[in-house]
From TrEMBL:
Gene3D superfamilies (UniProt xref): alpha/beta hydrolase
Organism: Roseovarius bejariae
One protein family per Pfam: Abhydrolase_6
GO biological process: jasmonic acid metabolic process; salicylic acid metabolic process
UniProt protein name: Alpha/beta fold hydrolase
Family annotation (InterPro entries): AB_hydrolase_1 (IPR000073), AB_hydrolase_fold (IPR029058), MES/HNL (IPR045889)
GO molecular function: methyl indole-3-acetate esterase activity; methyl jasmonate esterase activity; methyl salicylate esterase activity
Amino acid sequence: MSEILLVHGSCHGAWCWRDVVPALERLGHDVRAIDLPGHGTTPWPLADITLDLYAQAILDAIETRAVVVGHSMAGFPISAAAEIDPTKIARLVYLCAYAPRDGASLVDMRMEAPRQPLLEAIEKTPDGLGFTFRETHLAKALYHDCPEGTVDYARQNLCVQAIKPQATPIRLGKAYQSVPKTYIRCDDDQAIPPEYQRTMTGGWPAEDVHALPTSHSPFFAMPGELAQLIDQITQDAA
C-alpha cells in the first residue's frame, strides 16, 4: 500500500494522530506521524523555528515517496516541502488546512476569512514569539464533537506555537504545482470557517475535494472515517 506521513497543526504534535495511525495501519499502509520542530518530543527555540525548518523536517521524515497529510496550519509547510522536492511527495492532502497561494503568509490568509473564530481562543506568549490556546476555549474551538476525555488529553500535550512560520510569505512555483492535491473540508469547523475552506478550493476539480461533518479535529471526532477517506485518496496516488 502507500507510505503516509501525517503532519499536525498549530500547537499540536504527532500525538493528535493517536487513533488514525492504527486505523490506517489496519488498512495496510505504512504510516508515520511526526513532531515538527518545537512540538511534541522535538524541542526547539521559538525564535529559530521557520517555515523552511518545518518543510525540511517533513522531507527528512519521508523514506521513499509519500502521501503527505497536513492538518490546519500544516498546509503551509507541506506545500513548502513540495516546492523544495516534489519527487518525494506522491500527493498532498489538506485536512481542513490552509491551501496556500504564492506570496501569501498563513497570517494573511487567516485574516482573509469572513470570520475570525480563533481570535478569542488564542493568546500570545509574553515575548511575542508564539501563541497558545486558552484552556477555556479548547472544547468550543477545536474539540466540541470529540469523545469524552479528548480535551483533557489535549490539554496535557498542547504546546506553544511559533509565530514566525505563520507570518512568512510562502513561495510556490512549478515544483509545487506538479504535485497532485486533495482537500478534506470539515463542515462543522469552528477554527477555520468552512466557507473559507470552500473559497480556498474554488476551482479545484470536484473529485479532489471531500468533506467530513466534523469539527477542526476529525482525527478525534471520526478517526475511522478519516482513515477510510485517506485510504480512498491514496488509490489516486498509487
